[in-house]
């Protein structure tokens, strides 16, 4: 079977994702689409709006055949590590190609840019450091350094968020012994962070979440998601009484910040340069997560970098544990599949070099961070639902769509 | 001025406390009653039902002239340390005597018993250890050892909770260079832990809290507290929308237990013998604090010892910090006074060997644990009230009743 891999978060799944999954299948002439998906906490440093099984179901109902989880060690990470983790999992699953959406849409531009940047890395890195010394964030310094070095000679506009991610996928793929074929499709409408909803059927996930969390109700987003997703979101909300957002975890984060010593906070992943004092001070007077972020933000750190740091603080993840997990989080955690996905998995199972995990209970040690992520994620729910969600983490078999 | 000291928690202040304050003044022929009172977390390992300023006000309105705070380092502690801390503060404040309520009511019995126990401590301690090896709790082992050693020759029944506390006050007082005169009065009606309310005007604080927390409403306890206390409780409830109980802090405690590693928990004060595993396991499935305590309790630990341990976990207090604080928490934190109290304080101020703290802002380091206690205690309230309570910790002048 010919397979194409995609890297997703589905927060939540919407019509743009449907388009992406279909186009990926077509572009790759693939029989099978495999998605590697972030679990309960996402690359931008946020809790997922619904849990990972619900999101896996959305995927399977809308053009994906197999869904595996991107471990926490890679999912709540800057683009480089996120990409490395995701690409290596697709590769391990023997994908022939992988396909990502981008603002650019031409794979040649990605390949050329990756070559150019790699060839000049010895020149680029000192420039990045120079700009960082002026107090700007790392991504901003990268952009400035690239502009200085390449002026307009880089074919890819790396100030666009999906171009950046794609660029890192392509870079990660180039380091594999047997790289997959990289493919990209041009994203339709709605920019990545576009918050305003329009009358088009495609809106950004950011815009959709915003509409939901501002209590405009699920109805307000019905036109932007496939009918099965609308049903899933409604079912989730009715069952759990909640969709998840940072505000739900703010009391816990505030408690953690106030009850920890600065030196305890400084041991946690991504907490550097004394920002722990700034976080504690802001936590003292902030009355909501939004409030808190407004007080904490600085031009030295991107919004998402701060949010990722806060996820690591919320989960109490020490630097040491995360650095170790970056090396050792080597497993395939199956979240869901349809008949075709199952058949494929049976075929390749014997060639897998990593453990294939269908039930977490037997892999508590390996999955420690993912399990902790679920336990903390579940605390956003009422006790009964919370407990049942944690039991799912241990015992839920993969979602199977027949 | 002749002064008598009393050791209190006022959780909440009730008619029995009023009786105690009056009798203490009479018995000591004192011009002034000084209370040393636990702050936001109490000896039995519980959050106080209302904050310390409200409780200081209740005291001042009902027969107490001066209220100072027993530091966290002593208040959330077994009887020995609790007594040592409280007695030493009363002594520092130049009390001529101190007076406690007891089931026994005869001071001679306390003095004789203290002498007898001290004289036999070399025999008693091995017996206590013997009983503990059989897996019973420390207080139980103490009782068994005393029964074995003294049979019925000890004049004091040390199985009664107020007798035990008084016994430790007397012991602590004996170690002072210039001991105060110890006095005791017989407690009226209602046993210490008596939970059922009767038609008498005196009920136990336990019974009163139980009635309140079981949502019988404040009206149900009106007859057991002075009118000013009833007003204060009502005002508090209307302002903060809450009276405090462990259930309010259960989500935070559960989060702390689930997001900490066993070795992190094992570093905290009173967490010993691998009980951290038991706590984590119970936290996973418990849906309330009551539920959790039922799952955790064991005959090896008393209920209050476990609760105290949980307060230290909630506040994230390491063994090291607490052991240090037990030595270094040497200050007089003024919570409130009336005119007579103020006059007395002016008289003795120059003779105080410890700092007299009226505003915490200047003593952040010394008060670190008390401030943390307030910050965590405040998290039980809505954001706005929570913030104002924390500001009180830093800036609230003592309650002054004129």
Automatic annotation (TrEMBL), chains A, B:
<keyword id="KW-0820">tRNA-binding</keyword>
<dbReference type="InterPro" id="IPR014729">
    <property type="entry name" value="Rossmann-like_a/b/a_fold"/>
</dbReference>
<feature type="binding site">
    <location>
        <position position="187"/>
    </location>
    <ligand>
        <name>ATP</name>
    </ligand>
</feature>
<dbReference type="InterPro" id="IPR008513">
    <property type="entry name" value="tRNA(Met)_cyd_acetate_ligase"/>
</dbReference>
<dbReference type="GO" id="GO:0000049">
    <property type="term" value="F:tRNA binding"/>
</dbReference>
<dbReference type="GO" id="GO:0016879">
    <property type="term" value="F:ligase activity, forming carbon-nitrogen bonds"/>
</dbReference>
<keyword id="KW-0963">Cytoplasm</keyword>
<feature type="binding site">
    <location>
        <position position="162"/>
    </location>
    <ligand>
        <name>ATP</name>
    </ligand>
</feature>
<keyword id="KW-0436">Ligase</keyword>
<feature type="binding site">
    <location>
        <position position="101"/>
    </location>
    <ligand>
        <name>ATP</name>
    </ligand>
</feature>
<dbReference type="Pfam" id="PF05636">
    <property type="entry name" value="HIGH_NTase1"/>
</dbReference>
<dbReference type="GO" id="GO:0005737">
    <property type="term" value="C:cytoplasm"/>
</dbReference>
<keyword id="KW-0547">Nucleotide-binding</keyword>
<dbReference type="GO" id="GO:0005524">
    <property type="term" value="F:ATP binding"/>
</dbReference>
<keyword id="KW-0067">ATP-binding</keyword>
<comment type="function">
    <text>Catalyzes the formation of N(4)-acetylcytidine (ac(4)C) at the wobble position of elongator tRNA(Met), using acetate and ATP as substrates. First activates an acetate ion to form acetyladenylate (Ac-AMP) and then transfers the acetyl group to tRNA to form ac(4)C34.</text>
</comment>
<dbReference type="GO" id="GO:0006400">
    <property type="term" value="P:tRNA modification"/>
</dbReference>
<keyword id="KW-0819">tRNA processing</keyword>
<feature type="binding site">
    <location>
        <begin position="7"/>
        <end position="20"/>
    </location>
    <ligand>
        <name>ATP</name>
    </ligand>
</feature>
<comment type="similarity">
    <text>Belongs to the TmcAL family.</text>
</comment>
<keyword id="KW-0694">RNA-binding</keyword>
<protein>
    <recommendedName>
        <fullName>tRNA(Met) cytidine acetate ligase</fullName>
        <ecNumber>6.3.4.-</ecNumber>
    </recommendedName>
</protein>
């Amino acid at each position: 079977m010919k397979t194409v891999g995609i890297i997703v978060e589905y927060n939540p799944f919407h019509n743009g994702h449907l388009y992406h999954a279909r186009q990926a299948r077509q572009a790759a002439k693939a029989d099978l689409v495999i998605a590697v998906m972030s679990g309960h906490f996402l690359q931008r440093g946020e809790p997922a709006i619904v849990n990972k099984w619900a999101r896996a179901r959305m995927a399977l109902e809308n053009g994906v055949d197999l869904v595996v989880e991107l471990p926490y060690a890679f999912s709540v990470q800057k683009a480089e590590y996120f990409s490395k983790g995701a690409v290596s999992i697709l590769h391990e699953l023997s994908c022939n190609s992988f396909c990502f959406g981008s603002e650019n849409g031409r794979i040649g531009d990605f390949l050329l840019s990756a070559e150019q940047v790699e060839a000049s890395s010895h020149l680029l890195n000192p420039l990045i450091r120079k700009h960082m010394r002026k107090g700007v964030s790392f991504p901003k310094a990268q952009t400035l350094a690239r502009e200085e070095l390449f002026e307009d000679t880089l074919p890819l506009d790396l100030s666009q968020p999906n171009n950046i991610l794609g660029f890192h996928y392509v870079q990660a793929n180039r380091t594999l012994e047997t790289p997959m074929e990289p493919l990209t499709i041009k994203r339709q409408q709605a920019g990545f962070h576009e918050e305003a909803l329009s009358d088009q059927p495609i809106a950004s996930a950011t815009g959709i979440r915003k509409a939901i969390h501002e209590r405009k109700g699920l109805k307000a987003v019905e036109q932007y998601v496939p009918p099965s997703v609308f049903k899933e979101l409604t079912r989730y909300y009715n069952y759990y009484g909640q969709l998840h957002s940072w505000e739900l975890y703010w009391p816990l984060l505030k408690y953690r910040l106030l009850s920890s010593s600065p030196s305890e906070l400084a041991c946690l992943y991504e907490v550097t340069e004394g920002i722990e004092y700034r976080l504690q001070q802001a936590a003292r007077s902030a009355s909501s997560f939004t409030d808190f972020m407004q007080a904490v933000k600085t031009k030295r750190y991107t919004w998402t970098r701060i949010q990722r740091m806060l996820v690591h603080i919320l989960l109490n993840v020490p630097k040491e544990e995360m650095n170790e997990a970056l090396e050792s989080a080597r497993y395939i955690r199956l979240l869901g599949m349809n008949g075709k996905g199952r058949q494929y998995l049976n075929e390749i199972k014997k060639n897998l070099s990593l453990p294939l995990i269908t039930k977490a209970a037997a892999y508590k040690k390996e999955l420690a961070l993912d399990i902790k992520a679920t336990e903390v994620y579940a605390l956003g729910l009422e006790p009964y639902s919370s407990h049942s969600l944690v039991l799912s983490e241990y015992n839920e078999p993969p979602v199977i769509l027949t």
